[in-house]
Design brief:
Layout (H helix, E strand, L loop, with lengths): L2 H4 L4 H14 L3 H23 L1 H11 L2 H50 L2 H6 L2 H43 L1 H4 L6 H38 L1 H6 L3 H48 L10 H42 L19 E8 L9 E8 L4 E6 L5 H6 L9 E6 L2 E2 L5 H5 L2 E4 L10 H5 L9 H10 L3 H4 L19 H15 L3 E5 L7 H15 L3 E5 L11 E6 L2 E6 L1 H7 L2 H17 L1
Parallel strand pairs: 3-8, 3-9, 6-7, 7-8
Antiparallel strand pairs: 1-2, 1-4, 4-5, 9-10
Helix pairs in contact: 2-12, 3-5, 3-7, 3-12, 4-5, 4-12, 5-7, 7-9, 7-12, 9-11, 9-12, 11-12, 16-18, 20-21
The structure holds adenosine-5'-triphosphate and magnesium ion.
Magnesium ion (MG) binds next to helix 13.
């Protein structure tokens, strides 16, 4: 047996215990009361067993009047104390446990909010959800269960042992034969448990992920008849979870059986030894019954104590996972300069970007100057790196090479929060929240905005036209992710949000892609006035919307291959001219 492998007490595990204990520190008073309750619970049982011998020998055999009066009172007193103890320990542990769960969930959730964008690409989202819904619960339930078992069952075992010892030391010695096999069982069980627990956590994440994906893609599933594939995939992951849980059940069950067998042998030895000639004459039936009962009562406690390691292992592997996430480095934010309001003088200097887990570089040395208050349009074929370039501005990703300069200062020298305050963003995929129109426009730091300001922004974004038709105006809820709105409506809400933010840098990634020609025309007017006095980066596939830009940069395979105004680029007859002719031709044939 190699105790080191179990790793119940090594330095790393100690660190986890200490950190978990930190979560309970605020509730120590409740914890102490709960532990006292457990002591009353376990002690009460032992005390009752202690009454058996006088009950049999004095009460029934000798009809002792003193005992006849007191015995019922003692019984009620013992069980009343025990009852109160059970309540205090159960509720107290639940109180501490629930508070710890909430605190851990809070910490994991806030960790998610400060982790870099790259983290979210690297792990399935199901894993992230189940960390909050499943793994956090495991930590608390496992550790409160474990504590409760150790204290209550520990006291019960010690109490029973004391009862036996004080009744007949000779018979009690028999018990010692149980110690080595029980220890062996406990070790084997705990080793197996830790392994399985870790795999269950992983498989719970896969279950959550499979559900999320199928529910999120419910339209695709229906249209493309993916029901069978989704069902198979889901059954696959739940099958794995079931198998692992059954393994745990099997481990539990076989340890119970093994303990039972060991105990039966001890009991048989007890009876055999107790009935030896020379012994049997010294032992009254009260003594025998009391030792036997104490041992019988000790059994379930002993069984639970052997499984407690397993509980601790379950909590440990859960806590290990959670603490590892909490320790993941946050977004890089080493800047010290608080930027009040940028002028918007933006320069990319030989910027490179290679995404983590993607060998192919997305940006291969982009150099671009964006003067304050000008509009820079990025065009180029799909996958050429346009979105990647603008995603560097809010520092979703850090450049792998080169640097970005804002108002003459290296980007990294600004604090992240103040930098992001300078940027309004309408992305390629508009994301709205399950809230009202007004709260979606005045989101986050904009939350204090007045109703007039919100309406003005919505009007400027040409969104008021449809908002006014909603039952509760700007206070109408829009459903999860804005699913009660059309794509174009969602986009206009996002534009209103950007207008309300009134930031010096504006990023529009395909902001008008979901609009019809007429709405686009109206939005274009709104955007044109929004772009004034701001440094704007706009990505558009429809070239007609960017003809007026101060400069147009054509991207290809992570580089800027052409740069100039619309007229310059047309005259040059390169990629842009070719693209433009193609679209112009399309529009022409559409019209005619
Ligand atoms: N999160 C990511 N992780 C890894 N690789 C990515 C990620 N996002 C984009 N890429 C890769 O970077 C390259 C550039 O993608 P990007 O989204 O910048 O293109 P784009 O020019 O915006 O295209 P589109 O016009 O289709 O929006 C692509 O080859 C893509 O595979
Ligand atoms: Mg893009």
């Amino acid at each position: 047996m190699n105790a080191g492998k179990v790793a119940l007490w090594d330095a790393h595990t100690w660190g986890i215990y200490k950190r978990l204990l930190g979560y309970t520190r605020r509730y120590w008073a409740v914890g102490v009361i709960a532990i006292l309750g457990m002591a009353a619970d376990g002690g009460g049982l032992a005390a009752f067993t202690r009454l058996l011998r006088p009950m049999i020998d004095q009460l029934f055999a000798h009809k002792d009047p003193y005992l006849i009066f007191w015995m019922p009172i003692w019984i009620i007193a013992i069980f009343s104390v025990r009852g109160v103890g059970i309540f205090l320990s159960t509720y107290g542990m639940a109180y501490v446990g629930r508070n710890v769960v909430q605190a851990i969930q809070h910490d994991v959730f806030t960790t998610y909010l400060r982790l870099p964008a790259a983290f979210f690409g690297g792990e399935p989202s199901g894993q992230q959800v189940s960390r909050i819904t499943y793994t956090s619960e495991q930590v608390a339930s496992a550790s409160t269960d474990a504590l409760r078992t150790v204290v209550t069952e520990g006291i019960t075992v010690i109490g029973m042992f004391y009862v036996m010892l004080s009744t007949s030391a000779y018979l009690t010695l028999v018990l010692l034969v149980m110690v080595p096999p029980v220890a062996l069982i406990a070790t084997v069980v705990s080793r197996r448990y830790r392994q399985i627990s870790r795999r269950i956590q992983g498989s719970m994440g896969s279950v959550t992920g499979a559900v999320e994906e199928s529910v999120g893609a419910h339209r695709e599933v229906r249209v493309y008849g993916g029901q069978q594939r989704e069902t198979e995939r889901f059954d696959d992951v739940t099958h794995r979870t079931r198998r692992l849980n059954l393994k745990i059940a099997a481990t539990n069950a076989s340890s119970s059986t093994a303990i039972q067998t060991v105990a039966a042998c001890a009991l048989a030895a007890l009876v055999w030894l107790g009935t030896r000639p020379g012994v049997i004459d010294h032992i009254s039936s009260g003594v025998f019954v009391q030792v036997l009962t104490a041992m019988g009562a000790m059994l379930p406690s002993l069984k639970r104590l052997t499984n407690v390691q397993a509980n601790i292992q379950r909590g440990m592997s859960a806590a290990e996972d959670l603490f590892a996430i909490m320790d993941t480095p946050a977004e890089i934010d080493r800047g010290t300069i608080e930027l009040a309001r940028a002028r918007g003088d933006l320069r990319f200097e030989n910027v490179r970007l290679t995404y983590p887990r993607n060998d192919c570089a997305a940006l291969r040395g982009v150099t671009l100057d964006c003067a304050p208050g000008t509009v820079t349009a990025l065009v180029g074929r799909s996958g050429s790196g346009k979105s990647s370039l603008v995603s560097l501005l809010p520092r979703f990703y850090e450049p792998s090479g080169g640097r970005i300069v804002l108002d003459g200062e290296n980007y990294e020298n600004y604090t992240l929060a103040s930098l992001r305050r300078q940027i309004a963003w309408v992305g390629q995929n508009v994301v709205l929240f399950d809230d009202t129109v007004a709260n979606n426009i005045a989101y986050g730091e904009l939350a204090g905005a007045s109703e007039e300001a919100i309406v003005a922004a919505a009007t400027a974004a040409n969104a008021m036209e449809f908002i006014a038709r909603m039952p509760q105006g700007i206070h109408s809820p829009i459903g999860e992710a804005g699913n009660q709105l059309s794509g174009g409506q969602r986009q206009r809400i996002a534009i209103a949000r950007a207008i309300l933010k009134n930031a010096p840098i504006l990023v529009l990634d395909e902001a008008t892609s979901a609009l019809d020609t007429e709405s686009e025309h109206l939005i274009q007017q709104a955007l044109d006035s929004l772009m004034q006095h701001r440094t704007t980066l706009v990505i558009a596939h429809r070239l007609s919307t960017i003809e007026g830009a101060d400069q147009i940069a054509v991207m290809d395979a992570g580089r800027i291959v052409e740069r100039g105004t619309h007229a310059e680029l047309l005259a040059r007859g390169g990629q842009y001219a070719a693209l433009y002719r193609m679209q112009f031709h399309d529009a022409d044939t559409e019209g005619g």
